[in-house]
Write a structure and sequence with these properties.
With 287 residues, the protein is an alpha/beta fold. It is built from 13 helices and five strands.
């Protein structure tokens, strides 16, 4: 007889007592995170940046990858890590409902008003002085920028201004480590400025392939899915199906597994099987 829930993390095993509907909600929760070596390395490097004494040129990092390779998931995990609390600020360039300029988005993330009391834009000099003061008083050590390519896909003159701003933020007196996440176009734009690119460590996020790292990731994900029985996500048949249907794209792999887990609950199978995977591929939200 198969023992129920022994393959799960203890925190996940407790979820088996919930109703089917509640378990499905837990499965579709975006806060689920499975660590893997490259993500852990990026997190550790950010931590090392934060622990450095302030210097005239702060070290920086650019993480490049196409959409769905896990960039935003890594950022969300950085936000959840207690060791970065109050040390980092976050800017998402694709979230800009007020039409702020690049420097104004950064000011807004720091809580510095972008407009004067008369409702017009503030002069750059006064804005930068206040930014310096806030960074010093709050001891902020780094800025994490999501969708950095959005700041680079602009006319050359404006792109030059944005690169100059990044350089200024990482120089004294600000001394912020800039950690950018974006598509390869962001990395290419940085490479055009030789002086700036030298201070950026570059990481490339790629699609999964049939490796031990991928199998380890799948095994870790399985431990967090509140299904009663072990699915063996890392076995050859399932690995092959996942890769052939998603081409190894991180976001697609996770979505496919989540939806199949929901099918497993609905059908009473309580584990992911090749048959259920094929059903999910045909109708991802049909559970």
């Amino acid at each position: 007889m198969t023992t129920v829930g022994l393959h799960l993390l203890s925190s996940t095993r407790k979820l088996l007592a919930l109703s089917d509907e509640c378990r499905i909600k837990e499965i579709q929760n975006d806060k689920v995170w499975v660590d893997y070596p490259l993500a852990a390395k990026i997190s550790d490097i950010v931590n090392n940046f934060c622990e450095l004494p302030r210097r005239s040129q702060a070290p920086c990092m650019i993480v490049c990858g196409e959409g769905g390779t896990g960039k935003t998931s890594i950022i969300n995990q950085l936000k959840r890590e207690s060791r970065f609390k109050e040390k980092l600020i976050y800017v998402a360039l694709n979230v800009n409902p007020y039409g702020y300029k690049f420097n104004e988005l950064i000011a807004d993330a720091l809580g510095v008003p972008c407009k004067s009391t008369r409702g017009v834009g503030r002069k750059s000099d006064s804005l930068m002085v206040e930014l310096e003061e806030v960074i010093r008083l709050r001891n902020i050590r780094g800025i994490v920028i999501d969708e950095l390519h959005d700041a680079m896909l602009v006319p050359r003159l404006e792109q030059g201004k944005h690169l100059s701003l990044l350089k200024g933020l990482s120089n004294a007196p600000f001394g912020l480590s800039v950690v950018g996440f974006g598509t390869n176009s962001a990395g290419n734009a940085l490479a055009a400025d030789k002086q700036l690119s030298r201070r950026f460590i570059k990481f490339q996020l790629t699609d999964w392939s049939e490796t031990e790292g991928f199998r380890s990731f799948l095994a870790g994900l399985e431990e967090m899915l509140p299904l009663k029985y072990s699915s063996g996500l890392d076995r050859e048949e399932i690995v092959g199906l996942l890769l052939s249907s998603t081409l190894g794209r991180m976001d697609d792999v996770v979505k496919l597994i989540r939806s199949t887990a929901c099918y497993a609950i609905r059908t009473g199978e309580e584990k992911i099987t090749p048959e259920l995977l094929n059903k999910t591929i045909t109708s991802p939200w049909g559970y």
